[in-house]
């Protein structure tokens, strides 16, 4: 790594250096990282680089992982148990919380839970947890809820990203199994990326695929309604109409069958159900019909079908674009069906591959984190499995029917069926569809417990009990990534104040309710019990006929780990039957054609192409698609703190096609309101031909702490897949309007003064907050008249003593107002109100906050709102690692006649660190080449 962000934390010890190998807490790639803590007189300095030895990334990190050190500070943390929820007044929220000790907080939780059980029954209590939990936390809370409280009303935010894949795996294979590994992408001949902007959402795996493509003839297909960064290096982009994946893959299946590419020996020996599938997919037996339904040209379809048919080794990676759908399970099964038909499974370089979104979504699946699962890949509604788990746990009450899935769970909270809920490590008021319904539910709920590391989130404000959890770097345990690889996540920082592990908090409540089985002293003891349950009445594949409850998920080889062996555990894949397997070897499943169904055969699943539930109409003529962006994570409670991660896409935005922008009166860069039948939000428009006509794309990340009205979740429709319960985040009918304001502006305030102006600045009709290196930036807009606004905002700036120096420039006629505040020659704040085209370059203003003292020239430039020389204007940021902008990259490409991204890296370093920006650089090269030929 060439640039290592460093976070300073207070400490009194000097000159000690501690290095710890751990695991990144972001996406499902599960990269290994090495964290270094240096004790100095000024405090602890934390730095993070990639772990060269970890087989998931071999030292590579994306931009989020590279900037992990920015996120370990204590500024936003909850550090003590807190009791009492907010008191709402007409305009503001006044918190009535008081700090408490753990004993008081857990007493209150235990008493409230017992009251609910006594008065309303066990199903009146619910938990909503997270793929951010470590496996040990996940295991304890599921044991407590399903085995001791006796309800299955515990679901996880992983319901929102991979539950459709789980259901598809179970239908096809008999168990939730991802059969392949990342190395398969390095040995395949064709990669099909379906509904996955891999370049942005799983950058390290994408870089591995791109490296393999450089080294040999690897054909890459991207199936996505949008032209994303992932498409830049693809050989073929199929811009499918939203919701038509089943039509596409049923069409592929029919093509393979008709043209004699089926593997009849594999089908006869290892599968069942093909005839029903062939019958159900008959409407897609004509390729012209498939082209009409999918919106993909006949030529591109023919090429894709032929390539898939003629290539022996094909890897099909599918992610949120498949899973997050009202037909997500069928979409995933339609992909799996094509691999089963051709026998492209269980072989090196050939498999369907579900890519998870979170670092421990797979670990949650191992412990039965979903409301319809039991631990250790056992089935919740199977009486024999219930008996097995209850016997192992020696528990008094075992859940016997599936609990409420995420969307239904919060509807039950609002209706009063659920009286108490405990939310852990997630922010459902932002992340769930129809998110304002979640707000209403929590407002009405009798008792809300939230465990989090952040004191103020959209969800914590509804907590009657707010518990301080350990964050990344403080907690220890295991996570399992998308290739079934278990890695240690280790603590390298001391627990701050009263923050505790989630498993510890749950155990305290369990013991106060009189339950035994929760006397865990550390995460090692929990992991051993988890491993033992995985092996309980289980066996290796060669002995599966001798047991009733065979599962591939088996950690028998880890059941005797000592504390030291657990602490030093190397990344390892399951199944792991013998201890000597824990040496990092790859485990290839299904190589012997043995699946987890009772008859050991895989099942073809009959899938029928059905249009999405909600269609566009005159009132809502556009389709909203939501997803992630490169430098942010989930609801920004961590990544939003990092200046390095806040510059690439600084504001909440939506993409719209130029012809739709013209049709609906939308201009590039202007504020727009997106409205559906469920809610509305305000975003900045980006007009782009990378999106199809009739569609709008918006990111999922912004919350009410970082923007006034950008929670896209409240716009998303709450329809779910009837099998998996996963919401439809990719297809919501919406309308778009211009958002009227009298003026727009930009305000900067130095970090140590930011808390003084927060409430005043955020009273304007629209704002968004961006963290920079030394200051907080606000983009502002309002509907008050210009003259009223300027005077009101100046009055609200609390810099009125004699130590502050004010500079002002006012032009009422031109609607321009510039205000600059300094103290001892250092820039403290700057406020610019002007027509959008006359607002200053944001990066230039931010750079002046880094100066200890401003010169006379800088003062004049600041007051004018324009640098004395703008010749070095970088333009929109592309490379976050080295702060290289679009304009400089384009200039370098043209001046040096550059034809590939490596030449850009050689000239500017851009793309030479984490590689996350390489797809955008490729796109700029293509654009320059196209311009040169015009």
From TrEMBL:
Residues 17-76 form the 4Fe-4S Mo/W bis-MGD-type domain. Pfam families: Fer2_BFD, Molybdop_Fe4S4, Molybdopterin, Molydop_binding. GO terms for cellular component: membrane; oxidoreductase complex. Keywords: 4Fe-4S, Iron, Iron-sulfur, Metal-binding, Molybdenum, Nitrate assimilation, Oxidoreductase. Signal peptide: none annotated. It comes from the Bacteria. Its cofactor is Mo-bis(molybdopterin guanine dinucleotide); [4Fe-4S] cluster. GO terms for biological process: cellular respiration; nitrate assimilation. Gene3D superfamilies: 2.40.40.20, 3.40.50.740, ADC-like domains, BFD-like [2Fe-2S]-binding domain, Dimethylsulfoxide Reductase, domain 2. Coiled coil: none annotated. The keyword Metal-binding applies. GO terms for molecular function: 4 iron, 4 sulfur cluster binding; metal ion binding; molybdopterin cofactor binding; oxidoreductase activity. Belongs to the prokaryotic molybdopterin-containing oxidoreductase family. NasA/NapA/NarB subfamily. PANTHER family: NADPH-FE(3+) OXIDOREDUCTASE SUBUNIT ALPHA, RESPIRATORY NITRATE REDUCTASE. This is Nitrate reductase.
């Amino acid at each position: 790594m060439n640039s290592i962000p460093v976070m300073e934390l207070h400490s009194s010890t000097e000159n000690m250096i501690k290095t710890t190998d751990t695991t990144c807490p972001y996406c499902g790639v599960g990269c290994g990282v090495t964290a270094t803590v240096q004790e100095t007189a000024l405090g602890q300095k934390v730095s993070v680089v990639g772990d060269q030895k970890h087989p998931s990334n071999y030292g590579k990190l994306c931009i989020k992982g590279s900037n992990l050190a920015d996120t370990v500070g204590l500024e936003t943390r909850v550090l003590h148990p807190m009791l009492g929820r907010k008191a709402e007044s007409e305009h503001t929220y006044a918190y009535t919380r008081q700090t408490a000790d753990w004993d008081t907080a857990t007493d209150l939780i235990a008493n409230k839970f017992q009251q609910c059980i006594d008065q309303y029954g066990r199903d009146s209590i619910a938990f909503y947890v997270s793929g951010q939990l470590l496996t040990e936390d996940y295991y304890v809370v599921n044991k407590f809820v399903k085995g001791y409280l006796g309800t299955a009303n515990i679901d996880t935010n992983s319901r929102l990203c991979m539950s459709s894949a789980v259901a598809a795996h179970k239908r096809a294979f008999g168990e939730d199994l991802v059969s392949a590994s990342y190395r398969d992408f390095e040995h395949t001949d064709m990669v099909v990326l379906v509904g996955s902007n891999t370049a942005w959402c799983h950058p390290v795996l994408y870089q591995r695929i791109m490296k393999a493509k450089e080294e040999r003839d690897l054909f890459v297909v991207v199936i996505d309604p949008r032209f994303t960064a992932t498409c830049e290096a693809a050989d073929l982009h199929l811009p499918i109409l939203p919701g038509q994946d089943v039509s596409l893959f049923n069409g592929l299946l029919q093509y393979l069958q008709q043209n004699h590419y089926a593997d009849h020996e594999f089908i006869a020996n290892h599968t069942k159900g093909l005839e029903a599938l062939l019958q159900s997919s008959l409407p897609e037996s004509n390729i012209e019909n498939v082209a009409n339904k999918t919106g993909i040209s006949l030529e591109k379809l023919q090429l894709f079908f032929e390539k898939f048919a003629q290539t022996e080794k094909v890897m099909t990676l599918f992610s949120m674009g498949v899973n997050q759908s009202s037909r997500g399970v069928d979409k995933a099964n339609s992909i799996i069906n094509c691999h089963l038909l051709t026998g492209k499974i269980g072989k090196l370089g050939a498999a369907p591959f579900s890519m998870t979104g979170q670092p421990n979504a797979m670990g949650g699946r191992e412990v039965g984190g979903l409301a319809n699962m039991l631990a250790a890949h056992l089935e919740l509604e199977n009486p024999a499995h219930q008996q097995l788990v209850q016997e192992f746990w020696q528990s008094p009450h075992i859940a016997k029917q599936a609990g409420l899935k995420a969307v239904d769970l919060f509807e039950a909270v609002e209706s009063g069926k659920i009286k108490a809920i405990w939310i852990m490590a997630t922010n459902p008021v932002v992340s769930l569809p129809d998110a304002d319904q979640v707000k209403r539910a929590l407002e009405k709920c009798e008792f809300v417990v939230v465990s989090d590391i952040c004191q103020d989130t959209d969800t914590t404000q509804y907590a009657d009990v707010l518990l301080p959890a350990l964050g990344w770097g403080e907690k220890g345990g295991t996570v399992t990534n998308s290739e079934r690889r278990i890695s240690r996540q280790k603590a390298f920082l001391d627990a701050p104040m009263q923050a505790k592990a989630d498993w510890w908090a749950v155990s305290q409540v369990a013991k106060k309710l009189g339950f035994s089985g929760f006397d865990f002293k550390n995460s090692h003891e929990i992991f051993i019990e988890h491993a033992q349950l995985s092996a309980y009445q289980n066996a290796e594949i060669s002995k599966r006929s001798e047991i009733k409850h065979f599962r591939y998920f088996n950690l028998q080889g880890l059941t005797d780990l000592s504390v030291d062996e657990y602490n030093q555990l190397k990344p390892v894949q399951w199944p792991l039957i013998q201890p000597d397997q824990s040496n990092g070897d790859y485990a290839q499943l299904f190589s012997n054609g043995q699946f987890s169904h009772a008859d050991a055969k895989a099942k073809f699943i009959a899938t029928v192409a059905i249009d999405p539930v909600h269609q566009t109409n005159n009132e809502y003529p556009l389709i909203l698609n939501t997803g992630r962006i490169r430098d942010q994570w989930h609801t920004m409670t961590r990544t939003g703190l990092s200046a390095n991660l806040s510059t690439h896409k600084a504001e909440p935005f939506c993409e719209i096609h130029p012809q739709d922008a013209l049709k609906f009166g939308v201009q590039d860069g202007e504020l727009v309101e997106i409205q559906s039948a469920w809610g509305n939000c305000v975003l900045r428009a980006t007009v782009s031909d990378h999106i199809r006509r009739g569609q709008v794309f918006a990111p999922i990340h912004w919350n009410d702490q970082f923007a006034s009205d950008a929670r896209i979740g409240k716009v998303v429709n709450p329809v779910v897949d009837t099998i998996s319960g996963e919401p439809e985040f990719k297809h919501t009918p919406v309308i778009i309007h211009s958002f009227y304001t009298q003026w727009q502006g930009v305000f900067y305030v130095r970090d140590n003064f930011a808390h003084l102006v927060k409430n005043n600045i955020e009273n304007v009709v629209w704002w968004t907050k961006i963290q920079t290196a030394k200051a907080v930036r606000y983009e502002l807009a309002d509907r008050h008249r210009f003259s009223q606004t300027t005077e009101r905002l100046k009055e609200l700036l609390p810099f009125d003593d004699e130590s502050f120096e004010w500079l002002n420039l006012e032009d009422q006629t031109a609607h321009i107002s510039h205000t600059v505040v300094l103290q001892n020659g250092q820039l403290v704040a700057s406020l610019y109100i002007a027509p959008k085209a006359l607002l200053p370059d944001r990066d230039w203003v931010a750079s002046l906050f880094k100066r200890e003292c401003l010169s006379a020239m800088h003062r004049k430039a600041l007051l004018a709102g324009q640098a004395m020389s703008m010749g070095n204007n970088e333009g929109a940021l592309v490379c976050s690692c080295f702060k290289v902008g679009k304009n400089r990259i384009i200039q370098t490409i043209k001046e040096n006649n550059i034809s590939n991204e490596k030449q850009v890296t050689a000239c500017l370093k851009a793309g030479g660190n984490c590689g996350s920006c390489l797809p955008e650089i490729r796109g700029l090269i293509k654009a320059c080449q196209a311009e040169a030929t015009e």
